[in-house]
Automatic annotation (TrEMBL):
Transmembrane segments: none annotated. This is Ecdysteroid-regulated 16 kDa protein-like. InterPro entries: Ig_E-set, ML_dom, ML_Npc2-like, NPC2-like. It is found in: Secreted. Its main location: secreted. Residues 25-148 form the MD-2-related lipid-recognition domain. Residues 1-20 form the signal peptide. SUPFAM superfamilies: E set domains (SSF81296). It comes from the Eukaryota. Belongs to the NPC2 family. Keywords: Disulfide bond, Secreted, Signal. The lineage of its organism: Eukaryota, Metazoa, Ecdysozoa, Arthropoda, Hexapoda.
Length: 151
């Protein structure tokens, strides 16, 4: 195989690793934005819960329409177990930096927020709802619940 073929193969392999399928989710109070779709790597709509393997990363893509302008958005993630929210530490909680979104956000525009969540080995094997919020001044711009299972 020549070097061009290796390059094409490498690009396809890398693209497949980051591939996200649309998943089932529940809106949990998106007050300022409207969610169009949610995708998570390794999951699809045929799964009742996304299977997230510990000691790996999960990529989340949230497509939404802004219903008002915003100069900044903050990402907040919780795992909800038995109605108790447990915070997840994000490597980057600035939703306007390295996420596919550049602020300011304009009302009426569609955005695709992309983030990678480390699923740490120390997390217990548990059934959980992942609550992902994009916040503007403490209010939910977008709020979704993704049913998941940590393995």
């Amino acid at each position: 195989m020549n070097s061009s073929a290796y390059l094409v193969f490498a690009i396809l392999a890398i693209a497949q690793l980051g591939f996200c399928d649309e998943v089932n989710y529940k809106d949990c109070g998106s007050a300022i934005g409207s969610v169009n779709k949610v995708s998570v790597s390794g999951c699809n709509k045929d799964m009742s819960r996304c299977i997230l393997k510990r000691n790996t990363n999960a990529t989340v893509d949230i497509e939404f329409v802004a219903n008002e302008n915003s100069n900044a958005l903050k990402s907040v993630v919780h795992g909800v177990v038995m109605d108790v929210p447990v915070p997840f530490d994000l490597p980057n909680d600035n939703a306007c930096s390295n996420s596919g979104i550049e602020c300011p956000i304009s009302s009426g525009s569609t955005y695709s927020y992309l983030a990678t969540l480390p699923v740490l080995k120390k997390y217990p094997r548990v059934t959980v709802d992942i609550k992902w919020e994009l916040k503007k001044d403490g209010s939910d711009f977008v709020c979704i619940l993704i049913p998941a299972k940590l393995q």
